[in-house]
């Protein structure tokens, strides 16, 4: 009997977390720049992503996603970073210190709104226990949120500190998308949202740098897929009926690059991701927080916790060579959002609420109708 229950729960978990297909497998090629080898944020060397999915009974549909800029001690070797806020109705704990000092010193954690404090505590404990951090007395945990309360019993605050640590420790260079981790209970454009990722690899003539994006999608608007008005055609868009009148929820965007960008230009690149959201049909609704966190993994830019010299000389990409990175960030954001939708599965959760996945057969018909693919 126990074996049967275990297999049944495993089947349910697989149903709600396994992928449908990525947009490129549908024949779509958003943008003009080429993706990286994995078309993932982990195409940026050193970046790791981990998830912990929390599904319990009929009402708990939530989780944690952790993004590590590198696999070393991030506190001792901080990375340059910036935050851009498209709409500030949300919780991004630790953002003010990133803006003030221009760096990140912990893994980046994404979870649900009411578990941000849990994740902050977990990251602090994790950092304090790392070898080499025995004497530190301040930790700036960077934790962002979306509200997954439609599918998840959010008031139950079911994410535990151990879930956050598990996500960090399970981080790897491959990324699972869809109903997983912090994207388990999310809704996007009235369809099942989730975790999505994409990347762009610039040609050598434009620097050869890589830009990778990961998104946690939970927002509204009128869905567009590579220019096709899918939401309009399917008659499923914000304000089209009472269910979709609530377009609040938020979107967290994490951008990584190996280009030598300083805090200022990382913020400029982060701001361009809002264009990517716009290309998908997002409207940045009143109660939807849109946050972008950008960082550089370039080894020459690492910021030592205890510098050997008072003066730091680091390379920084000239302003005139940033436009191609901005373009890459826009394209990767757009495709990451689309992957979060096409990789998600229909989910039933809190109080019997059910959110359907984006219907891929109808999507195929529409992109053919608009001659986006043959």
Please supply descriptive tags for the structure shown above.
374 residues; alpha+beta; seven-stranded mixed sheet; five-stranded mixed sheet; 8 helices; globular; disordered N terminus
Number of strands: 16
Assign the structural class, choosing from mainly alpha, mainly beta, alpha/beta, alpha+beta, or little secondary structure.
alpha+beta
- What is the tally of helical segments? 8
Helical content band: 25-40%
The Cα radius of gyration reads 20 Å
Model regions low in confidence, pLDDT < 50 over at least 5 residues: 1-19
Proportion of residues in extended strands = 15-25%
Spell out the helices and strands N to C: HEEEEHEEHEHEEEEHEHEEHEEH
User: Cα distance, first to last residue?
Assistant: 51 Å
The largest sheet is: 7 strands, mixed
If you average the pLDDT, what whole number results?
92
Name the overall outline: globular
Structural description of this entry:
The protein is of the alpha+beta class and 374 residues long. It has helices at residues 2-17, 95-101, 116-128, 161-169, 230-233, 263-280, 323-342, 360-369, and strands at 48-56, 60-68, 77-87, 92-93, 103-104, 108-112, 142-146, 187-188, 191-192, 195-201, 210-217, 251-257, 290-296, 303-304, 347-348, 354-355. The strands form 4 sheets. Strands 3, 5, 10, 11, 12, 13 and 14 form a 7-stranded mixed beta sheet that branches. A 5-stranded mixed beta sheet has the order 1-2-6-7-4, sandwiched between helices. Helix 3 packs across helix 4 (161-169) and helix 6 crosses helix 7 (323-342). The radius of gyration is 20 Å and the shape is globular. The model is unreliable at 1-19 (pLDDT under 50).
